[in-house]
Amino acid sequence: MSDEPAVPHITDVYVRLECDLLVIGDSILTDRHHASNGNYDADDPQNQIGGIIPAFPLSGWLRHGMERVVQQHDGTACHPGEASANFKKAAVYERDLDDGYHEKGACVDDANADDGCVIFDLFGGFEGIPGKLMRRPIKFSPVRSSVDYTRGQAEGHFRRLNQNIVSRNDEDNREPLRNAELDAVANLDGCWHLSFRETKSEFTGLLCEGLDYLDAHNTNFMHQLGGARNFGAGIVDTHLVNPLYDDHELKRVFDRGKATTNAMDEKDDQWKVEYRPAFEEALAARLENQ
Ligand SMILES: [Zn+2]
């Protein structure tokens, strides 16, 4: 980019996430073993359990939103699956390739070069090539005062949900046929810390637009986050927290007792009018050249 450096180099950003119910299969890591002391009761609301939401589902969710933005610009995106993988559903993979995707890595001639598509650039690919977007897990806690938003943490309430499938015959008296347990986080509100290993204006532009897309389509089955989507889980309100905020201002975003300051309002205007359009122009320029 030969742009004047009118826009700041942004390396660390925070993504606001609000979700009433999030179900991530059985991969939420909790600290209940420390809290339980052998008599932990998963259903006791007194249990103040914190935990970690792994980055894998978050990353897939974000990537899917970004892929859509690339496609809206008439570009194609790296498919997340390796071309050489032995897909169970090869025909479905082929159909994806006709529908806005190219084979993973097909956009780079030399696997070490960083001239692939912008999705490859951000998320990396085969042969251990790292993406330039580092995605962290989110640590959550039910106690808001112990949540450090500047470290990409969230308030969230862990519960283990039980699901019973019962017999439909009257004489069986709802005899359970199957019981499933789901790990869920309720009332998640916090931020996800992302870091760019290398800063490019189009990365920030794509992040903004990808999050807007996900927010606007958050009840679309394809763009809910995690599992139990038919039951309303994974509907995420999201946006990029203004990267111009300092740590103090970032914390203030989550303080329900305090409004924004004048300085924050000014930064919001500056972001909206000056910076964000520049990042989005950079994205449009890059996608045009692909
Ligand atoms: Zn690609």
Structure explained in plain terms:
The protein has 7 helices and 10 strands. With 290 residues, it is of the alpha+beta class. It has one domain. The strands form 2 sheets. Strands 1, 2, 3, 6, 7, 8, 9 and 10 form an 8-stranded mixed sheet that branches. Helix 2 crosses helix 5 and helix 5 packs across helix 7. The longest helix has 27 residues. The chain is globular and about 70 Å long. The model has no long low-confidence stretch (mean pLDDT 88). Bound molecules: zinc ion (ZN). Zinc ion binds next to helix 4.
Rg, Cα atoms, Å: 21 Å
Mean pLDDT over the full residue set: 88
Which ions and ligands are bound to the chains? zinc ion
Could you give the distance between the termini?
A: 15 Å
User: Based on CA inertia axes, which overall geometry fits?
Assistant: globular
Taken in chain order, the helices and strands follow as EEHEHEHEHEEEEHEHH
Number of domains: 1
Residue windows where pLDDT falls under 50 for at least 5 positions:
none
Distinctive features:
290 residues, 7 helices, 30% helix, binds zinc ion
In short:
This protein is of the alpha+beta class and 290 residues long. It contains seven helices and ten strands.
